[in-house]
Write a structure and sequence with these properties.
The complex is a heterodimer of chains A (475) and B (394). With 475 residues, chain A is α/β, with parallel strands linked by helices. Chain A has eleven helices and 24 strands. The termini of chain A are far apart. Chain B is globular and about 50 Å long. Classes of the chains: A alpha/beta (475), B alpha/beta (394). Chain A binds chain B through residues 149-152, 279, 344, 346-347, 371, 374-375, 378, 381-383, 385, 388-393, 421-423, 425, 427, 451, 453, 455-457, 459, 461, and chain B through 78, 80-85, 121-126, 129-130, 132-133, 135-137, 155-156, 222, 230-231, 233-235, 297, 299.
């Protein structure tokens, strides 16, 4: 099926078709033996009469894989005769199929919703939520040398959509699909390490997809390809070893609240994309779950949606402000609570005093996303920063803590995929008992030394990292 | 200190220079006294060292008593990029202890109001916020004297309009500049700089510090085309370094668009113009702890960087003379020009400012007091050679 699809692409070579044919040979399963890979995703024909031969072609691979204990998921894309495709999947012994849209009732085989990020929802019964439009992570090739208004280079990360998916469906495992850029030479191993680490550090799993050159070289048993594959698998194994961190939740003084749907998707997603670039740790709260969400430990909430909250949620949000928090709202916030308070004229928000806290109502209907998060950070003030990151311009970090707050982890992802001239440096406001660096790039965990700062807090100095490291914190 | 002029008197004086030819302005450039002090740390020795320097200059009272003083500090570059683990204040930024000591001594000398000013990189954040983000305690500076304020001058700030400063004699590249109101509101303008090298202009001292007065809303990469933008985004490189865009049309425009688009040509002229248009009354250079190589974390194999501790402070009533002394302290010849370090690829901003009548760089024509220069020389070239040799070994 892949060959049939790819043949329609410009420049698709006969050699590549041959590599793809070899790739579905049962012998290729040797590559995943003894690795954390426990499920293979295969392109599954759409159930049309012409597809029967394609499904038959996969049979030897599926049979051999199932014998080896592997699960198979059939990915159905494009227009499909769903009942026929599902029936074929069931008879072929697939563990599940992944498909866009609503599956027909009584499918007979589990269906994983496989949707674009803006449409990903948790309503389906599947324990897995699939996102089909992930980004190949890294520095965008066209803009690698340029900086944004922060003068930090822009990075392509799946972090925002994955954190949103987790907030919308906290009880589900999130899968994300994205393909490597196709180029003449195989991608560097670090590109694959980042492709694994970017979703994994955000609590999700990448549906591994290799570039044609790497597949060809692996089939030809070339050593550099084997080394790249080993690094990829070692990285996946690393995250399996540290799966405890998947139970942690993003932590910060700011929460971004939205339904993350329809016209509000862009503003919510872009805020969550930008906050790591301005080094602001944050939580994500799905509006549908806000009634049951705890606001403990928050200093501010950014309510994104143009539609005002229902009376119950508004009461809860205003109570948060009354208690000393700052509530940021869009311009559509009828009859704002409190009294006007002085504010710098350039700010996007007009400020109101509400009890012990503040209500910040946006002055513009469609504010610039960067200016919005910059002003939120400015109004919150750096004096309360929990963490600061220095010397890692192409890196993002994600701070997560355990339910009781005793343990934490700071994931550090370097999207340039090469170490900087100086090692990253973290400022940590709260005292901790220990800090330990773990990374697929170092042989064993390393205790980090706290450097207390005269004005309070302490700094942790990390070695230079190519792609990923995490600081495990214990209070 | 002999200066006891109001801002208006000073600007009126500058107007006299306007009608003179360049050679005449250079000949008439004022000489000045410059004080040098050894100071190894930002600890208890700092305030006495600074106080002694100001006394050697004739005391601050005559200059600032009853006056509004603007103190331009240096918080250059992206604050998240440090030189290794070294703090920004120990490498690229004016140290907060030096800022606090300056404010304290200005207050003690009778300054009526002190406004600490700077245009930190691409942000509308207040200077307090920038300082918090570096784990500083801005309240220590605010409480060092009465009536101390901060203003981020990268945009309109608390002003209603920008203030225009014309370059006496018409300027070399720009005839004038529009700046934040704070630079007009003050009777006395202090440039409180760091002693550093600079990738494009060779050195960055009290004169180059004034370059940072230009608002990003007018001179930044994303400045408004017709009018200043509301918020500062981006750096000044597009307008000033390379002339690949114009400042907002509301501001004075480049006189001749055929001028070279080379930062080594443009920046020294722009710096000289700014120092001529907005004269510095007191130049102070923090060379206690600093960095070699570049003004911020722009190092490269050919420009290796190191955090260093020259342990020196320099102050004077003229920015050209003060920078000339600082150049000598750094092991450079203040009479050097393009082709000779530190001006390997740029024109000398000191010579250009001298041509505009701002001050005199020849040390023999200025008076240097306090610790003799030879006792505090910190040879930047020697440091660079050592770092390059170490790199080669690696």
């Amino acid at each position: 099926l892949d060959i049939a699809r790819r043949e329609k692409e410009k420049g698709f070579a006969a050699e590549t078709a041959e590599v793809l044919r070899r790739w579905q040979d049962p012998a290729s399963l040797a590559a995943v033996q003894g690795t954390p890979v426990n499920c293979l995703v295969v392109s599954w024909a759409a159930g049309l009469p012409a597809d029967a031969s394609q499904q038959q072609a996969l049979k030897p691979l599926i049979d051999k894989g199932r014998e080896a204990g592997l699960g198979f998921v059939g990915l159905i894309e494009g227009e499909a005769n769903q009942p026929a495709a599902l029936a074929a999947a069931q008879s072929a012994g697939l563990s599940a199929v992944a498909m866009e849209g609503n599956p027909p009732g009584g499918a007979g085989v589990p269906v994983i919703p496989w949707s674009k990020s803006a449409q990903a929802r948790s309503a389906a019964t599947s324990p897995i939520l699939g996102i089909s439009d992930g980004l190949w992570p890294g520095l965008p090739q066209a803009a690698a040398a340029t900086g944004g208004p922060t003068n930090l280079p822009w990075v392509d990360s799946n972090g925002a959509v994955l954190l949103i998916a987790r907030a919308l469906a906290p009880d589900k495992t999130v899968w994300v699909g994205f393909d490597p850029p196709q180029q003449q030479a195989a991608l560097a191993a670090e590109a694959y390490v980042l492709a694994v680490a970017d979703p994994a550090s955000h609590g999700a799993r990448w549906v591994i997809s290799l570039d044609d050159a790497l597949r060809a070289d692996l089939s030809a048993k070339k050593q550099p390809a084997a080394d790249t594959w080993k690094k990829l698998i070692d990285t996946a194994a690393f995250f399996e070893q540290h799966r405890q961190a998947r139970t942690y939740q993003p932590s910060g003084l700011l929460a971004v609240m939205s339904n993350f749907a329809g016209p509000d998707w862009d503003a919510g997603e872009e805020a969550i994309n930008l906050l790591p670039r301005i080094r602001q740790p944050f939580r994500v709260i799905a509006r549908s779950r806000a009634a049951g969400a705890s606001f403990t430990g928050l200093q501010a909430i950014y309510y994104v949606d143009q539609e005002p909250p229902d009376a119950g949620l508004r009461k809860k949000l205003v109570a948060f402000a009354n208690g000393g928090g700052t509530l940021f709202t869009p311009s559509k916030w009828p009859n704002p609570e409190g009294k006007p308070a002085p504010a710098e004229p350039y700010l996007l928000f007009s400020m109101r005093a509400v009890g012990k806290g503040r209500l910040a109502v946006c002055k513009e209907d469609r504010p610039d996303a960067y200016d919005t998060v910059a002003d939120i950070q400015n109004i919150m003030s750096h004096r309360n920063d929990l963490l600061r990151l220095y010397n890692a311009p192409s890196a993002n970090f994600l701070y997560e803590t355990s339910a009781q707050g005793g343990q934490g982890v700071i994931h550090l992802l370097n999207y340039s995929r090469r170490p900087g001239s100086d090692g990253p440096l973290f400022y940590v406001k709260e005292p901790h008992k220990s800090a330990r660096l773990v990374s697929p790039e170092i042989a064993s965990p390393a205790e980090l030394k706290w450097a207390p700062q005269e004005a309070g807090g302490a700094e942790l100095s990390l070695p230079r990292l190519s792609v990923y490291g995490a600081i495990e914190l214990e209070k | 200190m002999k200066q006891d002029l109001t801002r208006r008197e000073l600007l009126a004086g500058a107007g006299v220079l306007l009608v003179r030819p360049a050679w005449s302005r250079a000949a008439a450039a004022p000489t000045a006294r410059v004080a040098v002090a050894r100071c190894k740390t930002y600890g208890p020795e700092l305030v006495p060292a600074m106080e002694k320097m100001f006394d050697q200059l004739g005391g601050l009272g005559g200059l600032v008593k009853g006056k509004t003083v603007a103190v331009k500090i240096n918080l250059i570059g992206v604050r998240w990029q440090r030189l290794g683990n070294a703090l920004m204040e120990d490498t690229f930024w004016t140290n907060p202890q030096v800022i606090g000591a300056t404010v304290r001594l200005l207050g003690k000398a009778g300054a009526r109001r002190i406004r600490v000013v700077e245009g930190p990189w691409s942000t509308t954040e207040s200077l307090q916020e920038v300082m918090y983000s570096m784990n500083w305690k801005p309240q220590d500076i605010l409480s060092a004297a009465s009536n101390v304020e901060f203003e981020n001058t990268n945009y309109l700030g608390t002003g209603k309009k920008y203030s225009r400063f014309m370059v006496p004699g018409g300027g070399l590249i720009y005839p004038g500049y529009d700046l934040n109101h704070s630079y007009e509101d003050c009777d006395v303008f202090v440039s409180l700089a760091k002693m550093k090298e600079h990738a494009a202009t060779g050195i960055t001292l009290s004169m180059k510090n004034v370059y940072g007065t230009t608002p990003i809303t007018i001179y930044g990469q994303d400045a408004g085309v017709d009018e200043p933008s509301l918020r500062p985004h981006g750096g000044r490189g597009g307008v000033f370094h390379f002339a690949n865009r114009l400042p907002s049309k509301s501001a004075p425009q480049q006189k001749d668009m055929s001028l070279p688009k080379d930062a080594g040509f443009r920046l020294p002229r722009i710096i000289a113009e700014l120092n001529s248009a907005r004269p510095v009354h007191l130049a102070i250079i923090d060379g206690v702890k600093t960095a070699t190589g570049c003004e911020t974390n722009y190092g490269s194999p050919s420009r290796p960087q190191a955090a260093v501790n020259p342990g020196v402070l320099i102050a004077g009533t003229n920015c050209v003379a003060t920078d000339a002394v600082a150049m000598s302290v750094m092991g450079f010849n203040p009479m050097a020009d393009r082709g000779t370090p530190p001006f390997a690829t740029s024109d000398s901003m000191l010579r250009l400012a001298e041509d505009l009548g701002v001050g005199v760089r020849d040390l023999s024509r200025n008076e240097v007091v306090g610790t003799p220069i030879k006792e505090v020389v910190f040879d930047y070239t020697a440091v660079r050679e050592k770092l390059l040799a170490a790199q080669k070994k690696v």
